[in-house]
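Lab manual, section 2.4: Encoding a predicted structure.

Procedure: take the sequence of the chain (185 residues), apply the prediction step described in section 2.3, and record the output as structure tokens. A sample record is shown.
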Amino acid sequence: MNMNPEQFAAANKANIEALVELTQKAFAGIEKLVELNMQAARSSMEESAEQAKAVLGAKDPQALLALQSTLLQPSSEKALAYGRQVYDIAVSTQAEVSKMAEAQVATAQEQIQALVDTAIKNAPAGSENAVALMKSSVAAASNAFESVQKAAKQASSAAEANFEALSKSAETAAKAATPKAARRA
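Recorded output:
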């Protein structure tokens, strides 16, 4: 199972291309996060200026308390929306990277299977036990990878469901807390 120089060069080229693609996908995710953070910072600065003007324009303490309760709800809703957007960016980037990794592993499995098939064809007589062991090892490694991949997908789905539940719970709590704050004012 020797590799000739052309095969070695082709394998290296494919690995470099995969690394470049992976880096580009990760960088695109980072770009999205930076853009989101810039939008959030800009929005926060504008809102802070408006809120400061409103606070300075309050005529008495009661008006200030009423203003305070009206300012709380949008902040919690925006924090939830921001968290959702960060989560969506992370999930989409992870999905793209996973898809790419799965394709790379599938290609590697095909190459290994081709090498095994070549070795089996060229195996000397009397090496049937070694051939059977090699086939069994490749099949076991393939099954193990598929099991790990399936478990990772299930864990990802569970994490997403937990995030959804947590997000809905936080949103419900924020909505319930806002009327209480308004009543205190």
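Check your result against the sample. The chain has a mean pLDDT of 81.
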